[in-house]
């Protein structure tokens, strides 16, 4: 599971690129290990794709955007895949409907694995060329970061699929329990002023992180760690789900329509306490773990109840730009835990990266001067810039090398199936 | 494929019953042969269940209604299956939601096959008893007829699942083409009068076929064979799908809402002609085959266009009660064709049994004096007696030993995924 | 309110026809008396039309089907009305969408009343002709019976509209209470045999009542009177709305989806008892009145709970063909009560006509040999012959001269806003 | 129509307040003049309320938030109104469901007018007090601005209601045509920097405009006037509604689902050109008028097609803070035109205020340090701060005294029934 460690992040020389390619591709396959062909076909909702589809789509990305462009007269592995595994790139042509991805028992899982192998071989040939043009190298790098995003989705989607099975299957065995230290949720203050956010360096970034630009921030304070289950249980016990005055109007309507009484995957019992479905199966809710699988609406209501507010993405990024201490790193994909863990003891900001994505109160909008990438890959980010809120910081399902302070994740305010949690601000 | 031939139909002695049990169970498994675990998990709509679920549910039926009752202190193979594989028997307790059957990657297909084996072994032990009580024998027989119904559903559901895959997978290879003789749709007349319908003999029947009772019939005529694709194409060409005056009001609303332009599975092209998805893959529509996959609404509109009407179930049954000639037998499951075939030459009623179910204009209602069976199996039929129309005669997916003149099938008027066709009456 | 008494039913000579015309038209207007223009615009659901629309549509019927045909070069009162007030006659052309009838603040109520006057004048001219052709006279008669149907709808639709207003407006003052005698629900038996039903005489009938034809009936028994509120309350108290085994499967799904706990318009309280909205405003449920505003699903579940069944339409008609005693007549529109009343003391079948429509367990289907009327009026009945159940006997909102033993009313099984009740059979 | 001119804007002394009260209330009634009771009952969609409801709700606001608080032992005009005319104030108690407002034929329009009179009398008594406490005066002022918002909604909602009538009723006669000068859409540049936006002065503002705060702006350019119909027609002609690459992903899905081909109220013909429904009836689309009734999605797609972008709310407000020239004022409610008019000749920013609301690319979010008002009126704005976009500048239906540079309007991105248009930025 250590294949794609941050120190082997996608780099710049051809050899480094090839190494990164192999590492990322292997990590994806490692995530699918132990899953049956049936498991990999599940699709529990339109938003959550089958694991097999992720395996194929990430491969399609390299075939469509890299090999087709790089290899004159390129012959695709299977012409039907162009449509079957296109996610949403209108510029590439027709797409198999998203809610129907679970209908693809053919090609089989074995055929999709063979597809991966074939494309990997062809990519290896390409990456062995000493003079890979910069634009192709950039597309390969984009494809790797794209695949890392899908690694997280493999886990969050699978969790959703499995949660619909009354047998509550465990994806991975539960790791040995660690003694959790209770960590208070103290406030850390920041001065703000005219700061800079966005990606400005030479490493990789998505187009939506650019350009780096100035933002004016008033002084603010952040909680040292995300809200815990114990704290969230107090919100529930105080009638948090019954008091419309705590909620945004759309949030309250959603809560009523969906019948929400607790975060996604939570259930009463067995016994008097709350349990939740995890990738280790059904477990009792642990008080010191960060609460997760809450929507923006719940995060916002919690913050209002707590006399606080959610942070803006600029506040988060400004705070996260200081050199990260060890403490600010939480659980990431490579830890192989696939579940958020309690904050570490110590001082300063903890779990800024990892464990749970933090809902910000910033709508997902273009930065001043934003320009989408050229061609069909320009559909990657820009066309989703409405009706979504930004999340920051990564989760226990995010690869370490995939994160950076300028990274912007985004989901609609009602989404709950990501490892999404809450950090308070004042 | 000959295991459950009509001559070995469910009988009465214990040995005969055990033989019938084995034959029916093996026939189910033969239908699933060649399908991957992924194929068997597909669920394309709430009405159509995964093949794996059919394999398990038919087994659940024997475990729940026979073994639990017959064996004191019976220990179920897996207590979770009681809920997972209950279809709609409220009397048995909770049910896994029907639209979520495709979410059950666990238990795996192999585990479900093992479940079948275990229950078969236990049933073998039970059926070996020399003094099996009559009520248990009757439940076993019910279970076998129940499983035969699911054999047909395995095929019709799988056809629907596969049809959603752009690759149009073939379930079975296409059989060699036979030279079709054109058979005219002549009218055969019947006198009617005070006739009897319903099941009255000593063989098996479902509760909804009983009691046998008197019905008054005016003289009527029936078409010698079902409507063919060629005839239906003339209806389409004459604007059949564009003329509301031909349709029932609900039918026209459905046609508009669903955008129907032709029977289910039909598509324009490749080329100028109509093709349709079959269990042999995509094929050009053959003119002399009976039209199928039409709804009641389409059948009714076609009949109106043709200056005829649909037959009533009493008319069908009265006509079918004469000793069946060879000609009146059409294609059945055992033929292994899984697609309706053209009518045979000759005279008299043809294809009364097999090829396509025939929509009658009779609503599915209780016969005078109807009494549902006792206990949870009483939910088998009676509670569906509203909003459905009766179909008669069986199809190319119906086991031969499953049919009889009194057999009543029923579906809502908008249903199209069964092998449902049209026989005209006057 | 006595204008259109049964003794002045639509007859045959021109003078009689003109008299009937005036009587029916005046009765419609009398029903709208006291309603404001706002009241007459209300549309609470797509199925229930505004009173103003009923006033206009019944007039449109005479203009479109009679005047346009009878008067060469006829100039319509307003060409736009042809579309605005067409209900569902595809043969007449486009229709204003049914759910949008409440959007027609223009033409105003005054303009619609003027429209009525103008058409009445023109009709008077036509009806004054000594030699009115038979086909025209028949269309006039059809239009009068059509208008009588809409008189009932004016009341049932208005009740639905008003029920959505928290002020619970009273349409008419409550009549003085009459002392109700408790009448037991005894069974009356009938021999059946080969009987005749359907309309065969020379008076008016709708096409769906024809032809008169033979039906075989086994012996049966009917309850002397409809089920009362007291009896229905016992069903509720016995968990009738909580026991799926009492319900048809579609009925139970509907009950869950709609949250039904009692008949339409019923509510708990004020106080511990049940109240219901009536056309006299909010009233406590009276035990001896017939229960009404139940769906077919509820009627069927009640009958199952009571160890009985619903009657068939042939049973009802056979029983109703005996010369009606005074007792068999219940409350009708002309009584001006607009609410069902308790059964009268005495013996024999009571309330066969009036008070509440009786759900039969017969699906609404064509009689053997049914032929719809020629032309667009052929859409009147035939195209609705699917997914509906037959009701018999009329209600407290049905004009007396509109009813006869062969009369078939029909509604979908979930419909509750008509004055629909239950008579048990065995 | 000049009653509530800007010079008589809600002020501070009791006499001024009383004057403003009378002016605003009279203006509301003037808007309803000429409408029938039926017109005032129409509700064409849940978002658009009946005019009668607006008349009552604005009165309810004064009764609930001012009189109940100011008058000890206050007896409401009708206790039922508290619930009937509550819009969304959970803190005030139950509300009549929004989609059911059109069901309230009672109270009648006359009764609602009487309600207005009674409350106006009581308010007059209150406002005549020499020592009206500041908090009450502030609530009165809030109520007046609230009522002005509803004046705009009276017009936009009525337009929607009337548009559903095939007769296309004219609300007001069409004013004489003015010769339009073609005005080019030149760019005006602004330097930006660390600017201030939000309300900071002593006049009235809503809580969502506060606090005034610093924002960093990069240099930007704005179009001198909104996009015209002629320009938008070029977008349509260039396939703007057929090219997904121009649209946000959610926007494209909405366009497909709703079948949008042009702005709301537009239709092809009569004749080859585009016509649209206006408050003067059906009119041909005039090329030099600002395009309106477009959603955010259409505004965004148009801007992308034009090689530009939408402006941010901070950019708009910064540009609008300069002392308004006469030219920057467009058509407002008091002009009595109720339809946007072509830009005036001249130079500088035109139509910054009036004619059409301008969609900004800013999500509607709280300003840094935002605090909602205390009590139930705190629900006025804050709870809607998600899933909406900000519009700026007012329209031809906005009262002049209601606007200011800091004013924030907001609607979901799919909303089209406001007078919403497009100003480009670069």
From TrEMBL, chains A, B, C, D:
SUPFAM superfamilies assigned: C-type lectin-like (SSF56436), DinB/YfiT-like putative metalloenzymes (SSF109854)
Protein's GO biological process: ergothioneine biosynthetic process
Swiss-Prot/TrEMBL keywords: Iron, Oxidoreductase
Pathway: Amino-acid biosynthesis; ergothioneine biosynthesis
Protein name listed in UniProt: Ergothioneine biosynthesis protein EgtB
Species of provenance: Caldimonas thermodepolymerans
Superkingdom in the source lineage: Bacteria
Domain Sulfatase-modifying factor enzyme-like residues, every copy: 189-321, 345-426
Domain DinB-like: 21-152
């Amino acid at each position: 599971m250590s294949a794609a460690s941050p120190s082997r992040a996608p780099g710049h020389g051809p050899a480094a690129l090839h190494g990164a390619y192999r590492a990322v591709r292997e990590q994806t396959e490692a995530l699918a290990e132990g899953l049956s062909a049936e498991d990999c076909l599940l699709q529990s909702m339109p938003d959550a794709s089958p694991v097999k589809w992720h395996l194929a789509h990430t491969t399609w990305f390299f075939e469509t955007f890299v090999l087709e462009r790089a290899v004159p007269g390129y012959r695709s592995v299977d012409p039907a895949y162009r449509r079957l595994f296109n996610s949403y790139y209108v510029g590439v042509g027709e797409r198999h409907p998203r809610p129907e991805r679970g209908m693809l028992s053919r090609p089989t899982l074995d055929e999709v694995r063979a597809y991966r192998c074939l494309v990997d071989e062809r990519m290896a040939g390409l990456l062995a060329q000493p003079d890979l043009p910069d634009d192709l190298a950039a597309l390969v790098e984009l494809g790797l970061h794209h695949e890392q995003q899908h690694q997280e989705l493999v886990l969050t989607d699978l969790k959703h699929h499995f949660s619909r099975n009354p047998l509550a299957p465990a994806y991975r065995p539960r790791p040995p329990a660690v003694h959790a230290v209770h960590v208070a949720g103290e406030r850390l203050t920041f001065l703000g002023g005219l700061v800079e956010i966005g990606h400005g360096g030479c490493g990789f970034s998505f187009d939506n992180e650019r350009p780096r630009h100035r933002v004016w921030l008033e002084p603010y304070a952040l909680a040292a760690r995300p809200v815990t289950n114990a704290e969230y249980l107090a919100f529930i016990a105080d009638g948090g789900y019954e008091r419309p005055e705590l909620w945004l109007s759309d949030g309250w309507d959603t809560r009523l329509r969906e019948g929400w009484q607790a975060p996604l995957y939570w259930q009463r019992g067995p016994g008097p306490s709350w349990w939740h479905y995890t990738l280790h199966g059904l477990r009792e809710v642990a008080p010191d773990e960060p609460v997760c699988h809450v929507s923006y609406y719940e995060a916002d209501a919690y913050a209002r109840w707590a006399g606080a507010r959610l942070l803006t993405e600029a506040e988060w990024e400004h705070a996260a730009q200081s050199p990260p201490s060890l403490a600010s790193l939480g659980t990431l994909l490579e830890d192989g835990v696939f579940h958020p863990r309690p904050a570490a003891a110590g001082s300063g900001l903890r779990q800024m990266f990892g464990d749970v994505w933090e809902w910000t109160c910033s709508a997902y909008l273009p930065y001043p001067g934003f320009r989408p990438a050229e061609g069909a890959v320009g559909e990657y980010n820009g066309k989703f810039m409405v009706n979504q809120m930004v999340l920051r910081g990564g989760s226990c399902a995010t690869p370490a090398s995939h994160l950076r302070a300028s990274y912007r994740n985004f989901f609609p305010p009602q989404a709950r199936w990501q490892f999404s949690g809450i950090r308070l601000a004042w």
